[in-house]
Write a structure and sequence with these properties.
DNA-binding, homodimer, alpha+beta, Arc Repressor Mutant, subunit A, 7-stranded mixed beta sheet, Nucleoside Triphosphate Pyrophosphohydrolase, 3-stranded antiparallel beta sheet, 10 strands, 2 domains
Chain lengths: 256, 256
DNA sequence: TTATTAAGTGTGTATTTGACACTTATTGTT
DNA sequence: AACAATAAGTGTCAAATACACACTTAATAA
């Protein structure tokens, strides 16, 4: 009778990195070429970027490192949203080849702390990929089958994004410094998967105080040029309650 | 030059268990007597209930086990809210004695997945404590210094509770099957740390549809007896959006 | 009988929401 | 130079919701 020795699990962080471009919400994925001994072709496998947590790292730092190694960016909106630790989450046979290539002990359980990152995809300079590995932006409605339980993680992240964007002014993290009201509305419509009324949207956003108009306008567009706005990060962070169910006094609506 | 060998971290689940009795929100803590070799007295140390995750357990199951071992209860509202993994989170010298008594390797890093439980404290039959260990209810404003980073975990849990109670009908999990409107309001006032208007509160709760009146009323109280209500768990779960920023059609208020 | 306690009840005003359509400023096309 | 095409920008009204507010009722205790 053999008893499996109790081996502590590995702990990793995985990042669900959202970007927004061309009216589409996108996910930053790792594409790996996995040599297949039988076919002599490469299998292509997609996964969320992630890595084992290092001995001297806390979890946030680990996730930030993963993000920075991939995008070169620091100080990005990055928030932990859920931890996944099913004993069988890495047990799919499809994932064996990958694990064998990156782990000393590919059988060990891996518990992963999942983070959600929101980045202005214009800022990203994807770090040059290696022979076997490369980062790619994938529209969220074209997310392929991912390694391990990463499809589930991504779906939870998207759900969390949808929820949080209604409560907190985080959508701005996906836009460039200067953005138009149209871009902002388009972003919200994309995340929430519904149309919003232009005039009501403007009114709420402006009344909320979290954005400020610039005098600068678009140039070179073949229609009336839109005014640019900026996000008041400091203001928004000192008014943490919902910006959207806003009362005149800036308070959150609940009871009373 | 010695290199610390990279030892995988331990992974545990810790439960922040809330109860509500005598108009007070309470926390279920473990009190341990730690023999102190110098003084020959016991040091008393408080901590959140928790345990290492077992090899064949997923995280939810582990947290449920911790909860069941302590309270004898199953099917309790229990939700993961954050994972804590600072490398130094168990490094306080005060915590050494405890760790040495429960871990084969007290130096190993421990990453903990924190859960929040809401229970009807009337249902709980605290499991008999051992010589060295016992569970106690502590009012949240009298929470003592806790082991490790458990004070921080508790504070995050309380903040999460405050947030979620505004978004989802979870407060009911802290009350008995049958409760009066006064008890419900008192619960909300306690969690939110503010007074609520009696008439507006009643109206919102009743209009939300998540509770139903019984014909039964209090007996033996020296004032007008209050009607009992029950929570419609099924209804609430099939109407997951905020019950509190409720529009006429039952929808959540956002844009439009 | 009276005092005490908490339950229970309705209305008016202020604010917010949500629906709705035309004008404006720019570039591209003819 | 006129016109087409495009997206920006703008105001009002009715309906729903929020919020403030005080007295009556039903029970027990004294």
């Amino acid at each position: 009778m053999s008893v499996t020795p109790s081996l502590n699990p590995h702990v990793s962080t995985d990042c669900v990195i959202f970007g927004f471009s061309q009216e589409t919400l996108r996910l930053l994925l790792i594409r790996r070429n996995i040599p297949n001994r039988l076919t002599e072709l490469n299998d292509i496998l997609y996964a969320l970027p992630g890595d084992l947590v290092k001995d001297d790292e806390n979890l946030d730092k680990s996730a930030n490192r993963v993000l920075a190694e991939l995008t070169g960016l620091k100080g990005i909106y990055l928030t932990q949203f859920q931890t996944f630790g099913d004993p069988l989450r890495i047990a799919k046979t499809k994932d064996r080849a990958w694990l064998e290539s990156v782990r000393q002990n590919p059988d060990a359980r891996v518990i992963t702390v999942a983070y959600m990152a929101l980045i202005d995809s214009q800022k990203v300079n994807l770090q040059p990929g290696s022979f076997s590995e490369e980062a790619v932006w994938v529209p969220i409605h074209e997310v392929p089958e991912l390694a391990f339980d990463h499809n589930e993680i991504y779906e939870q992240a998207l759900a969390a994004l949808k929820e949080r964007v209604q409560m907190q002014p985080i959508g701005f993290e996906l836009l460039p410094e200067k953005f138009t009201m149209g871009e902002l509305q388009s972003l919200y419509e994309t995340i929430l998967e519904r149309d919003l009324d232009k005039r009501n949207f403007r009114r709420k956003m402006i009344n909320s105080g979290v954005i400020s108009p610039l005098t600068e306008k678009q140039i070179g567009v073949s229609n009336k040029p839109a005014r640019y706005y900026v996000y008041n990060r400091e203001f928004a962070q000192s008014n943490p309650s919902s910006i959207f169910n806003l009362r005149m006094d800036g308070s959150f609506t609940l009871f009373n």
